[in-house]
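Tutorial handout. Part one gives the primary structure; part two gives the three-dimensional structure as tokens.
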Amino acid sequence: MTGTNETDGPESMSLYEREPDETPAEAVVTNVAAVLEQSPLEMKPLYESVDPDVLNSLFDGSSEPSGSASVTFDYCGLEVTIDADGVWLAELDPDSC
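Part two.
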């Protein structure tokens, strides 16, 4: 997990690059858990926020997403955006997981 802080307007977002052997869904759960300092087992299931199978099929690495394809959703009090670069996280309400 590699985090890079970047600011886009008033909110701060951090980019976490996906490990080569991680699915996009695994990368989301792993990085959100690390940011919140929680065990992934203590967090609500990802499927309550987004369909993990769809997320994996969109960003599985077998084909390059066209343009600036991304998916954004709320998960455990964070705004999660996933794109070809990795997982972007911005804090919304970290006590909601």
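Part three, for discussion. Confidence is low (pLDDT under 50) at residues 6-10. Residues 2-91 form one domain.
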